[in-house]
Amino acid sequence: MDSVPPEAPSDSDLLAQHVAGDPDAFGELVRRHRDRLWAVALRTLGDREEAADAVQDALVKAFRAAHTFRGQSAVTTWLHRITVNACLDRVRKAASRKTSPVDDAERLDQLLEPHESAEAPAVRQDLHRQLQKALDTLPAEQRAALVLVDMQGYPVAEAASILEVPTGTVKSRCARGRARLAPLVRHLRAETGGQNPGDENGADGRNQTHEASVPPASGPRDAGASDPAATKGGGGRP
């Protein structure tokens, strides 16, 4: 999310201004949040084209449904909920994928930023490709929970709000997803010499993620502010 000057209107104010007819308010909301929406979509779908389309669908829906927002959650939570649902819709329509349960429940965040030297970027990219390929084998609900909690650093409670499920459900989905990925966890840890970044999950339940590992959004930051279609490919299409 882009930094917001102290004197800038809040997200809620911008959404209200959009509903009232301000042609620029929604564009400012998009500017603030599209990078993180893109990151969630890309990690969930594993495909830049699909992620761009999912974010586009989500922003169009948010643009049209802004009048239904009642302030029961933060605007950013509302936007993420719409984006995650758009991603899950696409995943559910895709061909079913096989999964193999295992008995090891390592934390996924130990793989997100492999602990290798800066002189080996190709190794890092290959590890991330393998991790994304493994994520693609998970059921949609497990993948979404892992992306939010382990990859994007959301507290379990906030991830539960985004997914509209109890916190216990988020925890169980994450645990099952980590267990399914355990063989890859062991394999990749062996490839990186057994070095382990460790469990960075703080006492407040928020994971300390590494945003540099997530492809940043690119695209026309000054595009038509009132038109969510201007964000098409907000994460940068190939």
UniProtKB/TrEMBL annotation:
Q: Does the keyword Transcription apply?
A: yes
Q: Where is the RNA polymerase sigma-70 region domain?
A: 29-95
Residue ranges of domain RNA polymerase sigma factor 70 region 4 type in the record:
129-181
Q: Which SUPFAM superfamilies match?
A: Sigma2 domain of RNA polymerase sigma factors, Sigma3 and sigma4 domains of RNA polymerase sigma factors
What keywords were assigned to this record? DNA-binding, Sigma factor, Transcription, Transcription regulation
What InterPro entries does the entry give?
RNA_pol_sigma-70-like, RNA_pol_sigma-70_dom, RNA_pol_sigma70_r2, RNA_pol_sigma70_r4_t2, RNA_pol_sigma_r2, RNA_pol_sigma_r3/r4-like, WH-like_DNA-bd_sf
Question: In which domain of life is the source organism classified?
Answer: Bacteria
Q: Where is this region: Disordered?
A: 185-238
The answer to whether keyword Transcription regulation applies is yes
- State one Pfam family annotation: Sigma70_r4_2
PANTHER family for this protein:
ECF RNA POLYMERASE SIGMA FACTOR SIGM (PTHR43133:SF50), RNA POLYMERASE ECF-TYPE SIGMA FACTO (PTHR43133)
The text of the family note is: Belongs to the sigma-70 factor family. ECF subfamily.
| Protein's UniProt name | RNA polymerase sigma factor SigM
Q: Which organism is it from?
A: Streptomyces rubiginosohelvolus
